[in-house]
Amino acid sequence: MHPTVIDTLIEARWIIPVEPSSSILTEHAIAVHQGVIQAILPIPEARSRYQPAHHVALKQHALIPGLINLHTHAAMTLMRGLADDLPLMTWLKQHIWPAEARFVDARFVREGTQLACAEMLKGGITCFNDMYFFPAAAAEVVTACGLRAGIGLVVIDFLSAYASDADDYLAKGLALRDQYPRHPLLTFCLAPHAPYSVSDKTLSKVMTLAEQLELPVHIHVHETQAEIEESLTTHGIRPLMRLQRLGLLGPNLIAAHMVHLNEDEISLFNQYGGHVAHCPTSNLKLASGIAPITTLLQQGVNVGLGTDGAASNNRLDMFEEMRLCALLAKGFSGQADALPAWQALRLATLNGAKALGLEQITGSLVAGKAADIVAVEFSELELSPCYDPVSHLVYTAGREQVTHVWINGQLLLDNKELVTLKESELLSHAAYWQKRLTS
Ligand SMILES: CSC[C@H]1O[C@@H](n2cnc3c(O)ncnc32)[C@H](O)[C@@H]1O
Ligand SMILES: [Zn+2]
To answer: Which Enzyme Commission numbers does its entry carry (predicted)?
Structure first.
């Protein structure tokens, strides 16, 4: 029988598909053609069955599904370290929002998002769920770099350089979505910033549009105790109940943070089938608290992982989020098995894909899904010996060990070198913005 011609054959010491079972395949290869995983086979069988245009043999590596950053503000890389060691509301109102009012324009978002894409690619992130001003600039960057993204059609009830009022934000967002019909890498979410910054009237419009256009809704919710107290004072009701009253709870909701929740709220959120973007580092750094992830997972809520923006994390590093979420769940519950390594890996991959409605496309390595693949090298001293590669991935490895990244079958990180972005250009953009933000 003649071998089948394919684009790429990637051989590795281990393949960790994440689905359908928690199995680890040893000395296997992934056959990729036209952006799609064709098969995962033992290396000798793959070699005889396929004739690849590109053959990549990764002898000391594990292949994992691309990591999915379920909540970020990519362009905020340009504000990393601008204001640290502050609680959320002081950080936002006294530092970040004034800086955004002065400096954020389409160029800021383009160059900040490029910087974020570079950092995320180098750390094995293949897909991110973004929420920021000038989303057209982010969409342009994402498509040029070849990442996958959920672009937030942001709306907030204040004037910015991007839009004048809620209707203007929504009109601009919908026009952007119309520019990318059925794009292979871009999806769109309606992104009302938070219950405290978006009025009932605007949230109702978001709900109607989400239903009409079948769009997910991405929003910050119950991030701090102060948010809940302010809502009780202003609306006489907790934010989550307000979202329920406005019809926003449901399987299309991606709720970022969800730190302060009572038992009734967890059960209500679960009944509606919403998704949580857990951001453990940002929640610690802004002193917001620790989200009750073990309880959410026990109830059956789909929980993914996010970094939040680089100005509140300060890294866009999903290896760190995996490790931290597993450790916090143990410490918080007093149970060492509260969130095992396998589950942390699932949160960072398949659960993120589910939240974005992309579970048929990405989040695991199975035939028929897009080839969103990350290679992690295991030859460092601290990764030897290796009894369990998933244990090392979550508890020991870091983004420094990521060597190759494919998205939709396209090689975007080749032996730690970015293929579609120039690091020297990114550094000069960063220097430009540093000068502007400090002048
Ligand atoms: C209107 S664009 C998005 C908006 O969100 C701000 N932001 C960044 N991180 C957080 C966070 O953790 N909670 C709330 N808001 C956040 C960002 O600065 C933009 O203004
Ligand atoms: Zn955020």
So the answer is: 3.5.4.28, 3.5.4.31
Residue 123 has pLDDT above 90, yes or no: yes
DSSP labels for 88-130? Answer: HHHIIIIIIHHHHHHH-SHHHHHHHHHHHHHHHHHTTEEEEEE
CB-based contacts of 13: which residues, under 8 Å, 6+ apart?
26, 27, 58, 59, 60, 61, 62, 378
Q: Boundaries of CATH 3.20.20.140 in the chain?
A: 67-355
Q: Cite the residue boundaries of each domain of the chain with CATH code 2.30.40.10.
A: 4-65+370-408
Integer Cα distance of 307 and 128 in angstroms:
10
* SS3 state at 182: coil
> CB of 314 closer than 6 A to ligand 1?
no
Radius of gyration of the chain (CA): 21
Counting from 1 in the atom list of ligand 1, the atom nearest the Cα of 223 is: 13
Please give the Cα distance from 403 to 401 (Å, whole number): 6
CATH number of 4-65+370-408: 2.30.40.10
- Give residue-wise pLDDT tens across range 159-190: 999 999 999 999 999 999 999 999 999 999 99
* Separation of alpha carbons 79 and 403, rounded Å: 27
Residue 133 CB–ligand 1 contact under 6 Å? yes
Residue nearest to atom 5 of ligand 1 (CA): 193
Q: Are 328 and 290 in contact (CB under 8 A)?
A: yes
Strands across the sheet with 410-414, in order? 36-42, 25-33, 4-15, 50-65, 373-377, 402-407, 410-414, 417-418
What class is the 67-355 domain? alpha beta
**What is the CA(26)–ligand 2 centre distance, in A?**
38
Q: What is the pLDDT of residues 10-34, one digit of tens each?
A: 999 999 999 999 999 999 999 999 9
ipTM score assigned to the predicted complex: 0.99
Which is it for the CA torsion 110, 355, 217, 83, positive or negative? Answer: negative
Counting residues of the chain whose pLDDT is more than 70, the rounded percentage is: 100
Task: Return the axis-axis angle of helices 106-122 and 423-438, rounded to nearest 10°.
Answer: 130
